[in-house]
Amino acid sequence: QVQLAESGGGVVRPGRSLRLSCAASGFIFSGYAMHWVRQAPGKGLEWVAVISSDGSNKYYADSMKGRFTVSRDNSKNTLYLEVNSLRAEDTAVYYCAKDPRYSAGTISPFYFDYWGQGTLVTVSS
Amino acid sequence: EIVLTQSPATLSLSPGERATLSCRASQRVAGYLVWYQQKPGQAPRLLLDDASNRATGIPARFSGGGSGTDFTLTISSLEPEDFAVYYCQQRTSWPLTFGGGTKVEIK
Question: Which residues from B are below 8 Å from A62, CB to CB?
Fold first, then answer.
């Protein structure tokens, strides 16, 4: 069955960087676009970024452009999110989520059929 | 960016009652509206895609409707496990956006 397992969260000081990972199993990882979605404590869901199945195309939420970088390693079935210059407002649970369509390098807006359990990032001095 | 507004913010109902949740979009999204359920401490779970298609394993008591800018999620008879937060999401354009959520709580 599809499994997504995030890691890399923790307490980080403002201004530092962090790389989150999402290990995927149970499906052909290289065939699916993947997303990051975050949720601040007690708040709603906020889409962060998407990367195409082959890594050639990426989109970011406007508020994430410049500090967030999504990448993937299909040989390791792993998705990444690097966040630079962390701010207090980046404190959230970060989820990776799978697009349901088996596709090539193009991506279009869609939804998420599977989610990981999330990893908590706390930005605090 | 398409803004999604969910109402009410909180719905207080008893098991067995009918729940009707609303999601309104700031622009037409055709039928490209998706619903998720989230329980405390858990990841969201896909309920309905394209406004009314139930995802795999979702019970028939969940139904959805609407088009254009106004959508509803209906739970015909609330079961204890249905008390949760529900989010809508549009898949018409980037960036993908979510509504603020409706919490269905036990009255």
Answer: 1, 95
A16 half-sphere exposure, CB direction, 13 A CA radius: 14
Distance from B17 to chain A by nearest Cα, in Å? 25
Q: Which two tokens stand for residue B106?
A: 């036990």
Confidence of residue A94 (pLDDT cuts 50, 70, 90): very high
CA angle B23, B61, B46 (to 5 degrees): 55
Amino acid at B76: S
Smallest CA–CA distance, residue A41 to chain B, in Å, is 11
Whether residue B12 has pLDDT greater than 80? yes
CB–CB contacts below 8 A, A to B: 53
**pLDDT, mean of residues B5-24:** 97
Contact in structure between B19 and B61 (CB atoms under 8 Å): no
* Residue of chain A with shortest Cα separation from B102: A44
